[in-house]
């Protein structure tokens, strides 16, 4: 059997930003302005990829999402673009800053599906419904349908798997991204207060499992029971934080992804090329 291979590392470093912020429930237009402001702050620090939290545009507030789907949702066109004029400030920020922005949204697809989406605003300012959350958590299942496929975002010669919050709790999800050649994993998230241990463990583990960078954005603050715990971070391919936010307060965490670090880590820790095709085959059963 031919052993698995991993793609060559990118040619040049890339500066990224993980954002933690507190959007206003139901205010898509206002939150798009906030996302534009935060993108501008990240760009001023050199970021070319900016990741904002899960459902940032309508805010992660399930009662508001249930009460006003027409007001909180963005409509995707047949080609996957999202032409909603409320996004114009964010489109301009991405275009003016030559940055790619990944931001959480509630999206209504042409076939009627409502999903938790990682919206990608490209460097031309075009918004795309790029990836739908595959692993829904708790009461999300009452409002949304799960995504049907994974997605890889290409930024120059960098490859990034897209995941949203609970997706990152499943090792298989990050591994699927790595198997598709990902150098990094971008994760808009919304972790509630009291979950800091899991928040800090899951995404560092996904980085080390797959020897890839992880950019973890998170919601922060808010009012109980919808209070979130920040801790946005960028992890290196050994799961060590390159930047990390506090548990409270808005912040923009900027870090440089170095392809030399990626190459050195994958040379020293070769799990991706050493992994068997099926680790679960031919198991023995023993009695103690």
SSE ordering: EHEHHEHEEEHEEHEHEEEEEHH
Quaternary organisation: single chain
Helical content class: 25-40%
Structural class: alpha/beta
**Overall 3D form:** globular
Name the average pLDDT.
Answer: 96
Stretches where pLDDT falls below 50 for ≥5 residues? none
Largest sheet: 14 strands, mixed
- Per DSSP E runs of 2 or more residues, the count of β-strands stands at 14
Q: What percent of residues are in strands?
A: 25-35%
How many angstroms separate the termini?
35 Å
The value of Rg in angstroms is 18 Å
Figure out the total of helices.
Answer: 9
Question: Would you mind describing this structure in some detail?
Answer:
There is one protein chain. The protein has about 290 residues and is of the alpha/beta class. Helices cover about 25% and strands about 25% of the residues. The protein is built from 9 helices and 14 strands. Strands 1, 2, 3, 4, 5, 6, 7, 8, 9, 10, 11, 12, 13 and 14 form a 14-stranded mixed sheet that branches. Helix 1 (about 30-45) packs parallel to helix 4 and helix 6 packs parallel to helix 7. The radius of gyration is 18 Å and the shape is globular. The mean pLDDT is about 95.
Please sum up the structure shown.
By secondary structure, this protein is of the alpha/beta class. Helix content is 27%, strand content 27%. The chain has helices at 28-44, 62-67, 69-72, 88-97, 140-143, 171-179, 196-210, 259-268, 271-274; strands spanning 14-21, 49-51, 73-75, 100-108, 114-121, 127-132, 152-155, 158-162, 184-189, 213-221, 228-229, 233-235, 241-244, 251-257.
């Amino acid at each position: 059997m031919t052993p698995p291979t991993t793609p060559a590392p990118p040619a040049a470093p890339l500066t990224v930003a993980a954002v933690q912020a507190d959007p206003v429930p139901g205010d898509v237009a206002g939150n798009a302005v906030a996302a534009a402001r935060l993108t501008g702050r990240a760009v001023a620090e050199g970021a070319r990829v900016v990741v904002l939290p899960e459902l940032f545009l309508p805010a992660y507030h399930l009662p508001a999402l249930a009460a006003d789907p027409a007001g909180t949702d963005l409509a995707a066109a047949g080609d996957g673009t999202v032409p909603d004029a409320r996004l114009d400030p964010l489109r301009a920020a991405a275009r003016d800053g030559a940055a790619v922005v990944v931001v959480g949204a509630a999206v209504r697809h042409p076939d009627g599906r409502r999903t938790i989406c990682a919206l990608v605003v490209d460097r031309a300012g075009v918004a795309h419904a790029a990836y739908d959350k595959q692993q829904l958590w708790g009461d999300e299942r009452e409002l949304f349908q799960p995504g049907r496929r994974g997605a890889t975002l290409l930024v120059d010669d960098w490859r990034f798997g897209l995941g949203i919050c609970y997706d990152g709790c499943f090792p298989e999800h990050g591994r699927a991204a790595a198997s598709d050649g990902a150098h990094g994993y971008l994760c808009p998230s919304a972790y509630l207060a009291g979950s800091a241990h899991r928040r800090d463990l899951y995404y560092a583990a996904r980085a080390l499992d797959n020897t890839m960078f992880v950019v973890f954005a998170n919601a922060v603050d808010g009012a109980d029971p919808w209070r979130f715990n920040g801790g946005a971070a960028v992890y290196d391919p050994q799961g060590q934080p390159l930047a990390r936010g506090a548990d409270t307060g808005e912040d923009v965490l900027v870090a440089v992804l170095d392809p030399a670090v990626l190459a050195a880590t994958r040379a020293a820790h070769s799990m991706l090329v050493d992994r068997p095709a099926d680790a679960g085959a031919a198991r023995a059963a023993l009695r103690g």
